[in-house]
Design brief:
241 residues, alpha/beta, Rossmann fold, 8 helices, 7 strands, 20% strand
Length: 241
């Protein structure tokens, strides 16, 4: 069973940068459920979009797959594909494999440890998923990553991106962040947890504006990206090669 996320419950004398290590991996599913608005619905929508674009005999990639939550939702996908999960955290991959094996995941899959900052080899892909991952890639490397994804996708293949985004206007950005923290309070996070998590992510999670993400996709060669989900400062985009 997934443990409850209490990583930032107790005040810390020094808040270290957020890490995807073993402590986080143990509570990550709960963290996502309580920290990402409509997370279950986003995952359901991703499974629908994957069903629209996945092609028999190809690969479906999840970059930053963490505990393989998306693959688990795709267990009933009516396509003969290989699921390829990539993450640079061995703790996340170990936890993902543990859950997949315990649940008897019935599909063909492989998990690879790779740092997205160090280049990427994608091949024969009909779908690539970046769910809350691109925001953790240093901006200097995002253009190269997006081009590698585009080159590795088959024609008519799609990229699904879910990101935390900045509002284009400062006032609205403040409102959106306020409402986001209100959501976290409703989901049981304390003021201490919210403040310490914010500090831990400050130098690790670097969001773009929505228009900057769209420009990134266009620059790599994708057709006009479409928004399939939007909630204040969270957004889902789908783009086709």
């Amino acid at each position: 069973m997934t443990k409850r996320d209490e990583i930032y419950l107790v005040p810390k004398p020094i808040v270290s940068d957020f890490s995807f290590g073993q402590e986080t991996a143990a509570v990550f599913d709960d963290m996502l459920d309580r920290s990402v608005p409509f997370y279950a619905e986003i995952q359901r929508m991703i499974t629908e979009l994957v069903g629209d674009f996945a092609v028999d005999g190809t690969n479906v990639y999840d970059l930053g797959c963490s505990t393989c939550a998306t693959f688990r939702r795709l267990s009933d996908l009516e396509r003969d594909v290989t699921f390829v999960g990539i993450d640079d955290s061995q703790a996340m991959l170990d936890r993902g494999r543990e859950i997949m094996e315990a649940s008897g995941f019935p599909r063909r899959y492989e998990l690879q440890r790779r740092d997205l900052h160090s280049g990427l080899d994608i091949h024969d892909a009909s779908v690539v998923i970046l769910c809350l991952t691109l925001q953790f890639v240093r901006p200097l490397h995002r253009e190269r990553l997006m081009k590698a994804i585009y080159d590795g996708l088959n024609p008519q293949g799609c990229l699904i991106v879910v990101e935390k985004v900045l509002a284009g206007e400062t006032l609205m950005n403040r409102f959106f962040i306020k409402h986001y923290y209100d959501m976290k309070r409703r989901n049981g996070y304390s003021e201490t947890e919210i403040a310490q998590k914010r500090e831990a992510l400050e130098n690790v999670l670097i969001p773009y504006r929505l228009d900057e993400n769209v420009a990134l996709l266009r620059g790599a060669g994708f057709r006009e990206p479409e928004i399939f989900f939007k909630w204040y400062n969270f957004c889902g985009l789908v783009a086709v090669k």
